[in-house]
């Protein structure tokens, strides 16, 4: 069915993630190998709304595998959510004979992909988010690089904490998702971690820190996921100091976590997902998201994926499952339970080995 497609578009939307360029490269090279031209859409969905596109050649995507960010840039386009904005986006697709689109980003990007598919532009999503908060996939492009960036930064803080017998509270990105926080807490030897997915015993942490200090421990790290009220704040560091007598500083790593050269994993996953997205599109598939499940790259219905996401995040209840078959309902519930079990197990691991 490759002859059906003359041109496909590729865009990156929402927050940038290291490895997006690797997906863009794979999409471009795979499409060209199948005789299909590629249109790069600049600035995400705003590029469709504002007619900001360019044709991509094999040379245009040379030497981008090492670069973070996205060569197609990104934006959050509110106009695209309106009927007028959607009409402009469809008009751009028709103007440039774009027969299908591959959209790289997070859950907001996938909602836009569904809107395009429903209006006759076949669209496939690729999960690219450092937060790794897409429930239908075990892994999203950018996650590994972001965690390695945090580890590098926290390791530097550990050096000065040890030298001065201090504690550092480190807020890391995640946007209500604690994946980066809990994994880096384990990797960096943090004394504790605060995430929204697991209960946090504040008094028990103070008691542990006092005991460890009495036992001779000098340096302490506490990792906090962003946006958690009362903890992702310098006031939490001040409280730790008051409760334990340990001098405590607060560090907010912020958007430095988004940048940097992608790791091997993000480069390879970007290539695999990009290539598969093209194959699915040329095979006539639409409204699916490319996921990694149990180390396999698979295509998942985007509505199924979004329902699993809403259910896991508490934005929907199980009544939303009624439109699915029994088998699909079980699949969605398994995905949610798998995510909950992961955080439970990781939190238990941190508790067991910290100190």
Record keyword descriptors for this entry.
355 residues, alpha/beta, Rossmann fold, 2 domains, seven-stranded mixed sheet, four-stranded parallel sheet, 11 helices, 17% strand
Textual characterization of the structure:
The chain folds into 2 domains: 2-142 and 262-316, Rossmann fold (3-Layer(aba) Sandwich); 146-258 and 341-353, Phosphofructokinase domain (Rossmann fold, 3-Layer(aba) Sandwich). The chain has helices at residues 20-33, 45-49, 83-95, 107-118, 143-164, 179-188, 202-214, 234-244, 264-282, 302-312, 326-353; strands spanning 7-12, 37-41, 53-56, 100-105, 123-127, 166-172, 192-194, 220-225, 247-252, 288-293, 296-301. The strands form 2 sheets. The chain has a 7-stranded mixed β-sheet, sandwiched between helices. It has a 4-stranded parallel β-sheet with strand order 7-8-6-9, with helices on both faces. With 355 residues, the protein is of the alpha/beta class.
The CATH class label of the largest domain is Alpha Beta
Computed structural class: alpha/beta
CATH topology name of the largest domain, in short, is Rossmann fold
Distance between the termini: 59 Å
Shape: elongated
User: In this structure, how is the largest beta sheet organized?
Assistant: 7 strands, mixed
